[in-house]
Amino acid sequence: MKAARIIPLYCLLLWTSVFAQEGPGTITVEPAEIPQGGIAVVTFTGKEVAGAKVFFGGTEIVPFPMPDGSYAALVGVDLERPPGAVEISVRGRTGAGQQWERRATVSVLTREYPSEAFSVSPSFDQIDAATMKRIKREQAEFDRLWKTRTASRLWDGGFLAPVAVQITSPFGLRRVINSSPRAPHGGVDLKAQLGTEIAAANHGRVALRDDFYFSGKSIVLDHGGGVYTMYFHLSEFRVEKNAEVRKGDIIGLAGMTGRVTGPHLHWGARLNGARVDPMELLKIAGRQEAPPKADQPMAEVGSRPFDEAQGRQ
Ligand SMILES: [Zn+2]
After folding, report:
1. Which domains are assigned to the chain?
2. DSSP string for residues in 97-134
3. pLDDT band at residue 280 under the 50/70/90 scheme
4. pTM, to two decimals
5. pLDDT at 67
6. Rounded distance from Cα 161 to ligand 1 centre (Å)
7. Ligand 1 geometric centre to CA of 170 (Å)
8. How far is the CA of 30 from the centre of ligand 1 (A)?
9. Average pLDDT over the chain, rounded to whole?
10. Which of 194, 165, 181, 175 shows the shortest CA–CA distance to 264?
């Protein structure tokens, strides 16, 4: 595989933040310039902020309380979101019933993704009608999950890498097979021998545990608040569906199930429906330390649909 070098443009940028102050509350967004596939933290504070809603370019994001009385929300920027200005707003209501809104504008920056082109025998790439039906059904199952937001936060503190980090295929890699561009790589492939223990990146619930055409034996953990991590191509499951897991728990063993050529772990992450670089989750360590609240009922909120995978996990 000839993957071009990743150009981490965002590394050159200063860690800047937006700080807006109008009316009874303030909103802070860090960083104010977010690369595609990146994550920002929105914090808002002030009187009567409980129950306020956060919107990122129209997508609702679930905020969580911080120990100091403020609220925070993790904003994920999809790897294919067009670059440019995006408005973040926090909307709430005072005790007297008066509506208030705070706004901040952030910039989504282009991230340069590596690409590779190769050819395979056309027969290798052909998918029959029955398989296509299966792929579409499985895709719909994933899409339904991304639209489901558990209102409370289950994750706490920093995120862990599920195995020792050695990236064999980078996030966002664009593949062109037989001159036809495929969906970009929605996660990172981490080196993992057959049978390597896979750890939960944070506390959560096993929202999905099944065998899929592309991703093979797959687990998706719901960490609450619209944060999901996924673990694909496993050889064995070590947890049941709907089980509560703790950070570091072994949830399965690495393998090569699904459409892959060798054993590895595909590790992916979704935030508010957006495909984000899971390695970015590791960087938010230590910034979110509020204790998780008791679980609350599932809430479904609108999110824009994403055309995932299409032959590529
Ligand atoms: Zn992968």
Report:
1. 9-109 (2.60.40.10), 115-300 (2.70.70.10)
2. S-EEEEEEEEEEEP-BPPEEEE---TTTT---HHHHHH
3. very high
4. 0.83
5. 84
6. 15
7. 8
8. 28
9. 84
10. 194
